[in-house]
Structure formats: structure tokens, C-alpha cells
Specification:
The protein is of the alpha/beta class. Helix content is 28%, strand content 22%.
């Protein structure tokens, strides 16, 4: 993998003709997990009470597909999955939509020895919690996400959620957080509810409907986007769906990495 942006002396040297160690191709090597973690470190939000920072991690093809046959794995690659794992290793909590949980067969986040020291130094637990956004709480509570998580799974729902489903979720070991007045979830209240539990390093993995809601409510701080050099055609979803924003708002490029035609970008709100 090589860094394309921001440009540094090292970037310029490896990107120029004859810049490799043998005077040939630019340097391209597998980065360590520590190097990836440094490249994707959460920003320092300054003194005082920690401020929540919500980043999204998504993958898209050249023609805008976020999935192929309903899943993101076919348009991903090994390095994208290493970044995926690193972003989880840095996060306090992973926010995900209920439909994505069902389609992708979500499992609990696991503790990884590679991130243990980093997480301990940051005052984090051994693994991030999974927080599911669900109005209906129509979830399979026999899944490992509920029966054997390292840390209890969270469910964000509205105040009007069916009491029976809430009781079932809590009996299964999940912690239910109210983040909306009706049946649905208000994105800003969801962020606050998680921050109130001490979760300020927030990561969402979608799906497109949830990401669209976060974008429309302007609570997304950062987008980590893998652009896969694939074309799929068809009618697959984009990375974000749902309501249209009145005026598009701009994100700034923070960094751009490349490997084997895949681009790994970080964008943050200006």
C-alpha cells in the first residue's frame, strides 16, 4: 500500500519515476496494523469533555454499488478488510442498521491482541460494543450477537417501540437505549445516548439506509471510503440512501491510500 495524499517528501520520492529501492516502480508494501491504526487515528477533539466523533466505513464500486447480490464482501478485498478490522479496533462502539445485521450475518466484535495495548491506553474495553438501530426490534435474539458478545449488545430504538419486543431484547441480554420520541431513532439523539455511556469514538458500517439518515441529519463527522476498481451494473444500493439533503455539504480529503487499484480515502466535514 502507498500513500497518495497528503503529499510528503516520502510520497513524492516513491511516486516519482525511479523512486523505488531498485530504481524502478514506486514502493508498495503491506502496511502493519500499527501503521494502519496511525493513519486512521481518531482526531483529538481538544480539551474538556470528550466530544463524540462519528465516522462511517463503506465500500463502493466504480459505478456506485455498495453491494453485490446484497452483500459488501464481493466488492471488498483483503486490505479493505484489514482496514475494516483496524477501524473496529479503534472504536468504542459500532453503529449498524438492523437490516444490515440481518443481511450480513453480524457477529459480536472480538478482542484482538494486536489492539489490546492501544485500547487499554485509551481507556477502552477489550472490544467495541455493537449498537443496532431498530424501530421494530425484529431481530433474531438467538444469534451470537446476543448470546455470546464480549460486551453487551446495544439496541437503539424509539420510545414507542413495542414493549414486548423491548422486554424480549433485554431478556436476551441486550441493553435498549431510547433515542427517539416515536418508533424511529433520531440520529442526533442516538449519538448523544452513546456518548452518555462514554462511547465517543463512534463507527458506523451502514447500511445505506442508516448512513443516509446520518448524512441527512448532519451528524456524520468522517467518511472512510474504499473505492473498488470493479463495475457491477445492476440496481444495487449506493452507500447512502433515504432522504435528500436540502443543500449538499462538502467534506475535505484527509488522506488517500492506494493498493492494487483500490483507493482508501478519509474525508471529514470541513
Amino acid at each position: 500500500m502507498r500513500r497518495l495524499f497528503p503529499v510528503t517528501d516520502q510520497t513524492a520520492a516513491t511516486a516519482s519515476p525511479g523512486g523505488g529501492e531498485e530504481g524502478g516502480a514506486p514502493e508498495a508494501r503491506e502496511w502493519s496494523l500499527d501503521e494502519i491504526a496511525e493513519a486512521y487515528a481518531y482526531p483529538d477533539t481538544g480539551p474538556g469533555e470528550p466530544t463524540p466523533w462519528l465516522r462511517a466505513n463503506m465500500v463502493t464500486t466504480l459505478d456506485g454499488a455498495a453491494q453485490h447480490e446484497g452483500r459488501s464482501q464481493p466488492i471488498s478485498n483483503a486490505t479493505d478488510m484489514r482496514i475494516f478490522g483496524t477501524l473496529r479496533g479503534l472504536a468504542d462502539v459500532v453503529l449498524v442498521g438492523a437490516e444490515t445485521v440481518r443481511q450480513e450475518g453480524y457477529r459480536p466484535a472480538r478482542a484482538r491482541a494486536e489492539f489490546a495495548a492501544r485500547r487499554e491506553a485509551a481507556g477502552q474495553g477489550p472490544a467495541p460494543a455493537i449498537a443496532i438501530v431498530s424501530a421494530s426490534l425484529d431481530l433474531d435474539f438467538s444469534l451470537p450477537l446476543f448470546t455470546s458478545p464480549l460486551v453487551p449488545t446495544l439496541i437503539l430504538t424509539g420510545a414507542a417501540a413495542a414493549p414486548g419486543r423491548v422486554a424480549t431484547a433485554e431478556k436476551a441480554g441486550a441493553r435498549v437505549l431510547i433515542a427517539g420520541d416515536g418508533t424511529g431513532v433520531d440520529p442526533a439523539r442516538a449519538v448523544r445516548a452513546l456518548a452518555d455511556l462514554g462511547h465517543t469514538r463512534l463507527l458506523t458500517e451502514g447500511g445505506p439506509r442508516l448512513l443516509g439518515q446520518l448524512v441527512a441529519d448532519e451528524v456524520l463527522d468522517e467518511l472512510c471510503l474504499t473505492v473498488s476498481p470493479l463495475l457491477t451494473a445492476g440496481d444495487a444500493q449506493r452507500i447512502a440512501g433515504g432522504p435528500v439533503v436540502a443543500v449538499p455539504y462538502r467534506f475535505a480529503l484527509v488522506s488517500l491510500l492506494e493498493e492494487d487499484g483500490f483507493l482508501y480515502g478519509r474525508y471529514s466535514r470541513g
